[in-house]
Every structure is written in C-alpha cells, then in structure tokens.
Design brief:
Thiol Ester Dehydrase, Chain A, alpha+beta, 3 helices, 5-stranded antiparallel sheet
C-alpha cells in the first residue's frame, strides 16, 4: 500500500539558490511517515506512553534527482517494504504535483525502541495487525 502526503514548499524551506535545501527533504519524509502512522490510528505521543515505544530512524539512503522550488506542491509517497521484529523499511519518494516529476527517492529503516531504556523493542502487534490489514485492503 502506498501512502501519499501533500506538502507545499515554503520560503523557509529554500536555500540561497531558491530551491529546497537538501536536509528539508528528510523533514518531508519524516512528516509523511508520521502521518502514515496516524492514518493507521496511532499517535506517537500515545505510543510513547503505552506501550512505551518510540520510532527512530536507523538508516537513510537518499538520491536527490531534481530541485523543488518555493510554493510548489509536492506529494511524499511512502510504502512499507519490510517489517521485521523491531524495524520497518520504507521506500519513499517526493514528487512534484504539477508534472509528476520525481525529485527525491529514499530508503529508510526505522527502528522500534523501548522509550525507557532506548533499546530495540518488538513492534507492537496492534501496529503489525493494522499494517497487514491495510495491505490486504489494497
């Protein structure tokens, strides 16, 4: 299942050359993953309380293909490519809405960690179940 999250480029997102500063793509990717989790019915602050877990980026591989500019509308597309005991692998890309051009591609591994001791923790069954159900619906 592919999850889409819309983004608009704000002036603050751009660098001196008038294009999106490369590190801001990481923010866009993060927001899309957070909204994906929210779309499944999970709030990160609630997960930190019960069952006491956090999600943290473990690895990112990014290819920047084309620039985005001020005021453009973008879509961040996210797909879960793998689910292990304590991690999720995402394939993500940022596309410009006006022409569908791919601007950025990323592979991101997110680790599930215990909020108290900051050690790896199993992804809760409720999240796994929702993930499987959403894959079967699509």
């Amino acid at each position: 299942m592919e999850f889409a999250w819309p983004i608009r480029v704000y002036y603050e997102d751009t660098d001196a050359g008038g294009v999106v500063f490369y590190a801001n793509y990481l923010r866009y990717l993060e927001r899309a993953r957070s909204e994906w989790l929210r779309s499944l019915g999970f709030e990160q602050d609630a997960l930190m309380q019960d069952p006491g877990i956090l999600f943290a980026v473990r690895r990112v591989e990014v290819d920047y293909e084309r620039p985005a500019r001020f005021n453009e509308q973008l879509n961040v597309l996210s797909t879960v490519r793998g689910c292990r005991g304590a991690s999720l692998d995402f394939a993500q890309r940022v596309e410009r809405v006006s022409d569908g051009a791919v601007l950025c591609r990323a592979v991101v591994r997110v680790a599930c960690i215990d909020a108290q001791n900051m050690r790896p923790a199993r992804i809760p069954a409720a999240i796994r179940d929702k993930l499987q159900a959403s894959e079967q619906d699509h």
